[in-house]
Amino acid sequence: MKITRKTTILEIGCLVCQALREAGISSFLSGGAVVSIYTKNQYESFDLDFVSYGDRKRISEVMASLGFVKGLGRHFIHPDTQYFVEFPGLAAAIGDQLIERFAEMKSKAGVLTLLTPTDCVMDRLSAYYHWNDEQSLDQAILVAKSRKIDLNRIEDWSRRERMTEKFQVFRNRLLPKRK
Which CATH number does 9-116 carry? Predict the structure, then answer.
């Protein structure tokens, strides 16, 4: 599949993940791009954050084979799309919670491995909890309203993160009390 201006964020994610997988490099998508995919762009991200333990030189070769060029820092840009790809680090945890399960989505471009909806909400809440990032709280709510999540698991995780008060803010905004 050729990347064009019409290639969606899901298709780019699938292309990158599939190409890395075919090169023997495991990866998964995290961050705002997952929010975009799960909410059908109610929140729109233009940056796809992939987590991979793969060799950086080999990752660069795979990205070049897809037409991406190395930009500043950890970014890869493609001349035919507004989306860019980043490999921000090696974190396979959200707070102290290891990520053990992943979701997969398919398109004509391949298979994308990404955070589950519940882990996506926890990822966004982590930014809200630790950096008071209100936009991340809004993103967590969008995903929670768009997809099936495990609210009990999120509450347990929030308790372990010592963020029960902020979890209550999330819960109250997600499930407002009826009068």
Answer: 3.30.460
Where are the strands (E) in 96-148, listed by range? 97-98, 103-107, 110-114
Q: Is pLDDT above 80 for 39?
A: yes
pTM of the model: 0.94
What does each C-alpha distance from 28 to 31, 36, 131, 149 come to in angstroms? 10, 15, 24, 19
Contacts of 78 (CB under 8 A, 6+ apart): 3, 66, 67, 68, 69, 84
CA angle centred on 22, ends 120 and 74, rounded to 5°: 55
Q: How far is CA 88 from the centre of its chain?
A: 12
The two three-digit tokens of residue 27, written as one number = 């990866």
Average pLDDT over every residue of 17-42: 97
Show me where the domains of the chain are located: 9-116, 118-174
